[in-house]
Each structure stands twice: as structure tokens, then as C-alpha cells.
């Protein structure tokens, strides 16, 4: 993706000033920013980034992204903790995609924690009540 295009995460910034630095190795300052960068990684097919930002205790051995899913929009509904001085955080979101079969919505309450090196990592997610 061109760095001047709008970032897929929906923050309203160009990709080059938003998720690209995280995809290139910069640490996310908050759990929400990590979640948004992971959504952008799904949208852009960056499976290695998704695995590298996943907690080793819950990370799968491999990840196969479905190329027929086109992620279109992200709605962040709630953020609990996950700030620069927190150890854990949760982000509830809805991601909207197009598939060959039509519209897809994925709603999740994701959990994040700080790894030993201080970086945020995705732990797991559940369908919110």
C-alpha cells in the first residue's frame, strides 16, 4: 500500500504516518494502536506481523489469511485500560469485510498485555456479550 493512502485502520491518517511504522517494527504505544495495526495487517495480508504481535502463549504455529476476504472498515466500540502505563488492556471492535458470499462482520473483545520487552501483544479475543 502506498504510504500516502488513508490507513486501513480508520484513524484518518495516511498509512505512512499511522500503521506503517508499526508494521516496520516500531512499538505500539497503546493496546488500541496495536489492535488497529493488526486490523490493518489483516487488510493488507501481513501475516508475519500478526504472528509477531501475538502473545507466544496463545499464538498459533502458523496463520493462513483468506485472500477472498476484503476488510473494509473498523469500528472501535470500547477501550478499557491499555494505555502507556498499563500492563493489560481490552479493545472491543467490529470489523466489516466483503467476501464472495457477501458482507461479513466480526465483533470481538480483544485482550492485550505487555510482553517482557515492554511491547504490547495480542493475547486472545472473545465475542462480547
Automatic annotation (TrEMBL):
Coiled coil: none annotated. This is Zinc chelation protein SecC. InterPro entries: NTF2-like_dom_sf (IPR032710), YchJ-like_M (IPR048469). Pfam families: YchJ_M-like. Residues 30-125 form the YchJ-like middle NTF2-like domain. It comes from the Bacteria. Gene3D superfamilies: 3.10.450.50. It comes from Leucobacter ruminantium.
Amino acid at each position: 500500500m502506498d504510504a500516502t493512502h488513508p490507513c486501513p485502520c480508520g484513524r484518518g491518517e495516511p498509512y505512512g504516518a499511522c500503521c506503517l511504522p508499526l508494521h516496520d517494527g516500531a512499538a505500539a504505544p497503546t493496546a488500541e494502536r496495536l489492535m488497529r495495526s493488526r486490523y490493518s495487517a489483516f487488510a493488507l495480508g501481513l501475516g508475519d506481523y500478526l504472528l509477531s504481535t501475538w502473545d507466544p502463549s496463545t499464538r498459533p504455529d502458523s496463520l493462513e489469511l483468506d485472500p477472498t476476504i476484503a476488510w473494509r472498515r473498523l469500528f472501535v466500540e470500547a477501550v478499557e485500560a491499555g494505555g502507556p502505563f498499563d500492563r493489560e488492556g481490552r479493545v472491543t471492535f467490529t470489523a466489516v469485510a466483503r467476501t464472495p458470499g457477501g458482507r461479513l462482520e466480526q465483533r470481538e473483545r480483544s485482550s492485550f498485555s505487555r510482553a517482557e520487552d515492554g511491547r504490547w501483544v495480542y493475547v486472545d479475543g472473545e465475542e462480547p456479550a
